[in-house]
Amino acid sequence: MDTVLQRTNGRKAMRPGDLSRSLIIVGTFGVVAALAAPAIGFAADPPRPPNIVVILGDDLGYSDMGAFGSEIATPNLDSLATSGVRFTNFYTHASCSPTRSILLSGVDTHLNGLGAMDEFTAPNQMGIDGYEGNLNDRVVTLPQLLRDAGYHTYMVGKWHLGKSPDKIPAARGFERDFTLLDGMGSYWDDTNFSALVPRSLYTEDGKYLTGLPKDFYANKTYTDKLISYIDANHGDGKPFFAYVSHQAPHEPYHLPREWRERHVGQYDIGWDQLRQQRLKRMIELGIMPADTKLAERLWFVPDYSLLAPATRAVLGRKMELYAGLVENMDFHIGRLIEHLKEIGEYENTVFIFFGDNGAEGNELAHMIGGTPGTRDFLYFAGNWSQTDPKAWGDPGSCISYGPGWAQVSMTPFSQYKAWTADGGIHNALVVSGPIVKRPAGSINRGLMHVADIMPTLLELAGASYPKTYQGRELPALLGRSWGPVLAGGAEAVRTSQDVLAWEVFGNRALRQGDWKLRWEHKPFGKGDWELFDLARDPAERNDVAAQHPEKVAQLVALWDEYVKANNVVLPSRSPFEALEDTMPPRVPDDLGYPPLVNKRQYTPPKDMMADPKP
Fold it and tell me: Is the pTM of this model over 0.90?
């Protein structure tokens, strides 16, 4: 039985609250519609190939969209889900630039240059092919091939794949761009985070900018620029590919004042109750099975009910700002959608939307700012000094919501960004447009990967992936085209024997079928291989390696094959190498333990009460 969102008239963008009112469960109709859909790929030729819009939410969590169970109002993203299909078993990488490198190259990170992030390349990885920290020249990019196939190619937003002239978007296939080259930055100006990199670097149409436009605000400016690029070439008969790589909702949480007060007091209930509420909605929507359990609250995250009211209010305020930033991003995505409708391009546009990795639970500002007395601490204190909660969201403020709320965003999964538990790599995916022949608003549970996007879009555009490009031999594509699944002729592009694998910062994982092998640094992991049965335990609560040693051995052998095939060099250093020494000892999350914390004043029976004797 398909769970379907009620179709909106003419794929019109939804208003806040529409989603909850429009939920219906379609039984026999959904099955019949799916069976009736023609089992073809992209056989029906439109007047010209469709436009393609790929939108990323930076550090957006799995459950942060209304269509995936959130209380956050995302009516425009929900409208894409209503008219398209939601994929609940979609994987990215555990951090931003690795995911982006796979998206744009279709090739494993250890081959495409992001075997290590530029910021954390280990000493033993320096100078090794595949570990350049940028998208290397041994791969061809999706925009290069789409441009060769007759597409206009546009990019706005965050790049994070290289800064030198041969690495910027204009050199990697984008015809027009307005791009933040750094991995993060202010939404209001070009203030960056460290003393040696005090200013964020932007390019526009292949030129490095000396300043930013008047009235710059990231979400708005990126959308304004993209609309202008589309309009400049509209009517010339060529389709366009637009890569909308939003900075939001990555920290710092900067947003206009009118967007900061939309959830006042709503999050004072805390992360424990909110995770339960989201999971309940996810089950009602059909996103998660009815017997799904939440991952354990991380052992160092406090029980919210034990916090003082003032502390709860301050922590709740951080989540209020995060929610407002997600809603602001959704608003500007809605502006793009409405503009495409106005110029008659919406119905012939394919939209793909997802988050680039798990939600951010690490305190990046503390990592970058360093310790008192250091160069970067002094710079950070001087340039990010707006610490009053009333100024949060303004220029100079640097707010992130921390691990407790990150677990909410990744409901029901374990952990968050940078880790290879599903909370770091499992994302929500929405695909809509003429490519989709499945029932509108339906859900698919097939195993998907970000590497699949390149072969899918090349097939859609009538292009192919070459063996060589400009005299260079190319590595093989990692992914599979979603064509048969989107056309309704198949439920998955992978079998139970296919393998997916990840490695970043030394954290690693491999999935085959429903089995997942995972190795993470202590204390998030055990510093050894763990085994999980995701069909029974999607929250990775129970390590069953001891019960299934033969399965561990089988998957480790597959891991060794992956290492050999992709030149995986495990790092000699990691940003998490000393984490175990700086965190409290890991203990189980047992509800109500210790009983002492919830002991209340004992009230004796009234008939046994007496005043003291003289």
Answer: yes
